[in-house]
From TrEMBL:
Residues 140-285 form the Tetrahydrofolate dehydrogenase/cyclohydrolase NAD(P)-binding domain. This is Bifunctional protein FolD. Catalyzes the oxidation of 5,10-methylenetetrahydrofolate to 5,10-methenyltetrahydrofolate and then the hydrolysis of 5,10-methenyltetrahydrofolate to 10-formyltetrahydrofolate. Residues 6-121 form the Tetrahydrofolate dehydrogenase/cyclohydrolase catalytic domain. Pathway: One-carbon metabolism; tetrahydrofolate interconversion. InterPro entries: Aminoacid_DH-like_N_sf, NAD(P)-bd_dom_sf, THF_DH/CycHdrlase, THF_DH/CycHdrlase_cat_dom, THF_DH/CycHdrlase_CS, THF_DH/CycHdrlase_NAD-bd_dom. GO terms for molecular function: methenyltetrahydrofolate cyclohydrolase activity; methylenetetrahydrofolate dehydrogenase (NADP+) activity. One of its GO terms (cellular component) is cytosol. GO terms for biological process: L-histidine biosynthetic process; methionine biosynthetic process; purine nucleotide biosynthetic process; tetrahydrofolate interconversion. It catalyses: (6R)-5,10-methenyltetrahydrofolate + H2O = (6R)-10-formyltetrahydrofolate + H(+); (6R)-5,10-methylene-5,6,7,8-tetrahydrofolate + NADP(+) = (6R)-5,10-methenyltetrahydrofolate + NADPH.
Length: 296
């Protein structure tokens, strides 16, 4: 093992402290604290856990959390009516509708209904477009968290070769846009890419976001590469009946070759909620016509 572990948990804790420290100035200027509304439709246990931890983290940062739990058989019209109400609510700066949604609801229609200036998930096409053309907007939390970890580790990324594995709208595509914005030479690889190991071997920076357990092997990497593992895959553990979490990167072999790598868990995962709170605070400052604090 030679690679340094990139401690996303520690970075996220520091970011959350900086956010909490910025809340009082907002409150003095506006008479209220930033507010995040989280909407959960149905009883998916994993989603319920995420929503609970988002609410807890929001309150810990000194912001207001508004949780809306709707039954699994909620109609699209009823959900759109709630989104409309949250769009108009001046105490709500950020709106997050937890995905996936039940089958009877069209996710794209719901995302399109969210005020782009409250879209702290960065999923609205207006925010995808702003990111693509370099205008201020909101960037999806996971890729923005990955960029923060990379810049913290490497400083200026200009001229570096970056390979993003995965082309989802939530991670791969916005990650590629962020790296391009940071002056990397960016390749997006995916399931149809020919000779993926050869493509990955070019990279100074590898971001793996494919959802395939331990797919990226150490001998795919250029020595000294920095590896960001976005994967969260539950696989059977050695002990009968137990499971364990692994990333999209085979940590043991990759750590022999990389200079730095995020672990799973404890790498990218903790960044997502911290960046959600960051986006909410930034939304609040922008909506109030105030300059958002630097360094967030
Ligand atoms: N479901 C899993 N991750 C996310 C996320 O980041 N945002 C939303 N809205 N739903 C999710």
């Amino acid at each position: 093992m030679s690679a340094e572990r990139i401690d996303g948990k520690a970075y996220a804790a520091g970011l959350r402290q900086r956010l909490a420290a910025a809340v009082p100035a907002f409150e003095r200027a506006t008479g209220r604290v930033p507010g995040l509304a989280v909407v959960l439709v149905g009883e998916d246990p994993a989603s319920a856990v995420y929503v609970r931890s988002k609410g807890k983290a929001t309150v810990e940062a000194g912001m207001a959390s508004f949780e809306h739990k709707l039954p699994a058989d909620t109609s699209e019209a009823d959900l759109l009516a709630l989104v409309d109400q949250l769009n108009r609510d001046a105490t709500v700066d950020g709106i997050l509708v937890q995905l996936p949604l039940p089958r009877q609801i069209d996710e794209q229609r719901v995302i399109a209904a969210i005020d782009p200036d409250k879209d702290v998930d960065g999923f609205h096409v207006a925010n995808a477009g702003r990111l693509a053309v370099g205008q201020p907007g909101f960037v999806p939390c996971t890729p923005l968290g990955c960029l923060m970890l990379l810049q913290d580790r490497l400083g200026d990324l200009s001229g570096m070769e970056a390979v993003v594995i995965g082309r989802s709208n939530i991670v791969g595509k916005p990650m590629a846009q962020l790296l391009l914005g940071a002056n990397c030479t960016v390749t997006i690889a995916h399931s149809r890419t020919r000779d993926l190991p050869a493509v990955v071997r070019r990279a100074d920076i590898v971001v793996a976001a494919v959802g395939r357990p331990e797919m990226v092997k150490g001998d795919w990497l250029k020595p000294g590469a920095v590896v960001i593992d976005v994967g969260i895959n539950r696989v059977p553990a050695a002990e009968e009946g137990k499971t364990r979490l692994v990333g999209d990167v085979d940590y043991a072999s990759a750590a022999e070759v990389a200079s730095a790598i995020t672990p799973v868990p404890g790498g990218v995962g903790p960044m997502t909620i911290a960046v959600l709170l960051r986006n909410t605070l930034v939304a609040a400052f922008r909506r109030a016509g105030l300059a958002a604090p630097e360094g967030l």
